[in-house]
Fold:
Amino acid sequence: MISEALRRKLGCPTCLEAAGCARCERASAGPADYALRAACACGGPDKVALREAAAALHCPACGVSYPLGDGHVDLSPRDAVGAVTQYADHEFHERLGVVDAPPVLSARVKADMMRGLLDLKPGDSVLDLGCGAGKFALYASDCGATATGVDIASFFLPRAAATLDLVIGDLRRLPFRKGSFAKAYTLDVLEHLDETGVREVLLEARRGLTANGRLFVYTHAMESSKLAAFQRAVNRLAKRLGRRGLIDHEREAMRKSDHVNAIRSHEHFEELCAGAGLRVAERRYYNVVFKAVIEDLLLRMIEQRRRARAGAPAAHEHDGPEAAAPAHAHAHAHGPAHDHAPAAPRKPPTRFELAVAMALTWLLKLDVVLFGGIRTGPFFGVLEKTRS
Structure:
């Protein structure tokens, strides 16, 4: 949906107002010098507010019209900002098989860490950066928060389109005016971007937050702990089992096929944050031991056996009771082409499957409880503003 509250927050993704400090002020509003002006130490000028007319939103500065769609608005930049993700491809998205069900297993671990570390409360305005089908945004709204989702593609779940504010947009050029949201989060997104893209997303997120706003991230740096050796061993075993047809390992490779992994270390991430006017206020690491055994190995073996008995073809993304971890469409590089027929629609999990998945989810949460203080690559972080 497109609420009146959302309409007041929208701005042209590429045009900035003329007013600014001595370094970023210009004679007229528009897209000129966007990167320089948006990153100004003063916080940069605001986005140019859009005007509604004839079932579209118009920018008075550049003259571009953005159509109002069915349950969403398309505010993606008309000129390419950078490479676009494979998740924006229709066939690729179909093969992900996302269904409308609560997040469980590792997806639920991430969702609960997001809600907990952001301290989401009823009435909070929260922005999902890279919302994909809208599963996490729906989960955020379950606690009473007012969730808005933005993604480069419009493969939204029907319930998300009917109940959430959804925007098609590039995370590197967010179409929101300054201070529009109290909180924001991005899950499994930053690893798909190059270093410039990570810096731009952080900067755009900061501009969209209120003065005391907080940004939650889940991503990973290119380093690991000794515990990570166990996960790598499980992954090697999964590959061998995949070659024997005992497990479907291709889906994980498919999901990560366009990872760029630009964050070299946690110190490098802190440098990128500082350059965007943010600081890491809190961080927990995600060493996966229970997840590696339960979700990445045992459940995949069980699901493969079920498909074999039913004579069904192998699935390619998060089958079984977890009902697919949310697929995110982000602003990042294209992955390899996939010459496969579109996957058949999957049925939502039964109540029994959800109950089993939730019980297993509590085991997976032990990865954070027991090992969250051991430095490794994957991490949950809360970012706050450092300058105005």
About this structure: The radius of gyration is 21 Å. Confidence is low (pLDDT under 50) at residues 314-345.
